[in-house]
Amino acid sequence: MHVVVTGASSGIGEAIAREYLARGESVTLVARRKEHLEKIAAAGEGRTHIVTADLADPDAAWTWLDEAENVLGPIDVLVNNAGIQIVKRAIETEWAAAERLLRLDLHVPLRLTTLALRRMIPRGSGTIVDVASMAALAPTPGMYFYNAAKGGLAAASEGLRAEVKQHGIHVVTVYPGPVTSELEAAGRAAYEDHAAARNAPTGTPEVLARMIANAVAKKRPRVVYPRMYGIARHFPNATRWALDAFTPPLKS
User: If pLDDT is split at 50, 70 and 90, which confidence band does 228 have?
Assistant: First the structure.
């Protein structure tokens, strides 16, 4: 099986790549930091392909998909994981930074999905994995643009599932809550210290990666992790109230 993972150099993306390599699968690793990708690829010698690319670049080429298939065969699983986060007041966010986030977190996965589907549908098989966020179910104050991007990705992902099922394609939508990573640490640091934030259940990339791989294998529609955050899907109004009431203020 050939798995493509974007944002594979660290955090959740790295964990997903390592999980699939440990399962004996072939993996194309896509990210900007080549040296990080090379270290991860060492775990699967002969079963990896490295793509060094800045997917947020509006002039980025997409020929690397052809190159990946030439090296490792048809893409069986596309994991749309690459993303950035801005935790800042909306009016204090530079527009160039906001546009970059919207490109990488929303436009890029939509573009990659359409390109992958054109390859998967004729074969009648394949899986799209969209790593959204709990922010799609429970938008968090201080994440104006991130909420918009992840909400859009999740909605597109959930709607796509029924559309492509008839073609033998499966879609997994992933809703990570706090998961230990550089991204999570930077986001948490942007808020004032508060007991509610300090005590929020936090997961690990390794456990999430295993859940994602299992969801792909068992054709489950979505993954919510840590599991307790699944309550947000069933009680959105209560979750909205809790976030508004207990999210710490952003630091000045």
Answer: confident
Please give the angle made by the CA atoms of 171, 142 and 32, to the nearest 5 degrees.
55
Other C-beta atoms closer than 10 Å to the C-beta of 228 total 12
With helix as H, strand as E and coil as C, how does 116-149 read?
Answer: HHHHHHHHCCEEEEEECCHHHCCCCCCEHHHHHH
Q: Is position 146 annotated as part of the catalytic site? A: yes
Structure tokens given for 242:
């809790």
The sign of the dihedral angle between the CA atoms of 148, 112, 34, 54 is negative
Q: What are phi and psi of 127, to 5 degrees?
A: -135, 135
Burial of 38 (C-beta count, 10 Å sphere; 0-12/13-18/19+)? middle
The Cα 252–Cα 245 span in angstroms is: 19
**Active-site residue identified among 146, 175, 225, 229:** 146
| % of the chain at pLDDT higher than 90 | 76
What value, to the nearest 5°, has the Cα angle with vertex 219 and ends 233 and 64?
100
